[in-house]
Structures are given as C-alpha cells and as structure tokens.
C-alpha cells in the first residue's frame, strides 16, 4: 500500500566539502512543487544546484538542475519509489565545496540525502476511496442508512425525490462486498446510479 508523509522532514549532509540540504514533504501536484523549488532557489541564491523529484501520479518529475544527467533527480525519485511513496516532493539544495564527486559520487550523495531525511519521516497510508450513488424506496431509507453506517461508509449526500438518493464513499477494497450485500438484502430494490460495476448481475 502506498504512503505519503504526514509532514516535511529534513537532512543536512556534508560530503567532500559539498553541503547537501534535503527536504522531503507531502505534495499534491507539479505546479505547487515548482513553486516550492522556486522559493528554495530564492532562499539559497549561492547554491550551485536545487535538484528535485516528485511522485504525484501523472505529474511526477526528476530534475537534475545542472548536475550531470541522471545523477540527481532520477536517484532521488528512485528512493521515493523504493519506499512506495506517493504525493511526495524531494528537494536537495547543493552548495559546491570545490571537490568534484564524479557521477557515482553524485548519485550516492543525492540518494543518501533523501534517504537520510526519510529515516525520521512519519508516513501515512493512502487509502483509495470510491464514491457510489444509489436510490431506494422511502421504506428502505432507514435500512440503507444503518447498512452504510455498519460498513463505515461516509455519507456524502441524501436527496428526497420520487425515491431517496444516496451518495457515499468507502475504501475501494470494501466496495464490491457492500454492493453485493445491498443487492442481495435489498431484493432488487436498490437502484445504482453512475456506476456500472454496482448493477446486480
């Protein structure tokens, strides 16, 4: 199961006179990540590089910021992937100390910087949820409310019209069992909306 971070964490390493200041933090999208990186560059105008990696679904990124290609952003991204993180931004600010590290040395330095920060990170499991909509006759409203409460589904909306329309969410893994149980117990009187998977077979 993927995790994200509860709060930003930092590390500060000195490797052959170069200083590597890392931060790993929760992040939802690329635009916000780019703003964080821009702010870091403004805070560290004397830094040689501000490299970063983002894992956020289809908005992931790995940026070397002037370091040799593949020696910074990609290794940082690999650390995030290895720890099964999602929705996380890793940044490393490097102050060059005058000693070149070589490609292998750079990969190790950026990898170690991010890994060191993550040692103290508090991780939060990402539980994917699914939103379902259904309608029942008025006579079944109380029953359905009890079933949803028992399944720990979150009630999002209830509308009263010709029937009672419910919108609710629950963990994705729990949805199939609840759908099957409601279809069986409801005797075909639960009408599902906007979710073809929910229709009785």
From TrEMBL:
SUPFAM superfamilies: EF-G C-terminal domain-like (SSF54980), Ribosomal protein S5 domain 2-like (SSF54211). One of its GO terms (biological process) is regulation of translational initiation. GO terms for molecular function: guanyl ribonucleotide binding; ribonucleoside triphosphate phosphatase activity. Residues 134-189 form the UPF0029 domain. Transmembrane segments: none annotated. Gene3D superfamilies: Impact, N-terminal domain. One of its GO terms (cellular component) is cytoplasm. Residues 16-118 form the Impact N-terminal domain. Belongs to the IMPACT family. This is YigZ family protein. The lineage of its organism: Bacteria, Pseudomonadati, Pseudomonadota, Betaproteobacteria, Burkholderiales.
């Amino acid at each position: 199961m993927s995790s994200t971070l509860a709060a930003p964490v930092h590390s500060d390493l000195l490797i052959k006179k170069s200083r590597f200041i890392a931060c790993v933090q929760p992040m939802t999208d690329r635009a916000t990540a780019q703003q964080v990186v821009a702010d870091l560059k403004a805070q560290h105008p004397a830094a040689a590089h501000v490299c970063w990696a983002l894992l956020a679904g289809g908005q992931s990124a790995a940026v070397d910021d002037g370091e040799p290609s593949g020696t910074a952003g990609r290794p940082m991204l690999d650390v995030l992937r290895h720890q099964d993180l999602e929705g996380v931004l890793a940044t490393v600010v490097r102050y060059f100390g005058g000693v070149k590290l070589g490609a292998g040395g750079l990969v190790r330095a950026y990898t170690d910087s991010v890994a060191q920060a993550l040692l103290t990170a508090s991780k939060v499991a990402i539980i994917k949820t699914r939103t379902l909509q259904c309608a029942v006759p008025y006579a079944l409203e109380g029953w359905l409310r009890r079933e949803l409460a028992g399944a720990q589904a979150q009630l999002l909306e209830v509308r009263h019209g010709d029937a009672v329309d419910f919108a609710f969410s629950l963990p994705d893994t729990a949805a199939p069992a609840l759908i099957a149980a409601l279809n069986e117990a409801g005797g075909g009187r639960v009408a599902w909306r906007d979710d073809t998977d929910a229709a009785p077979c």
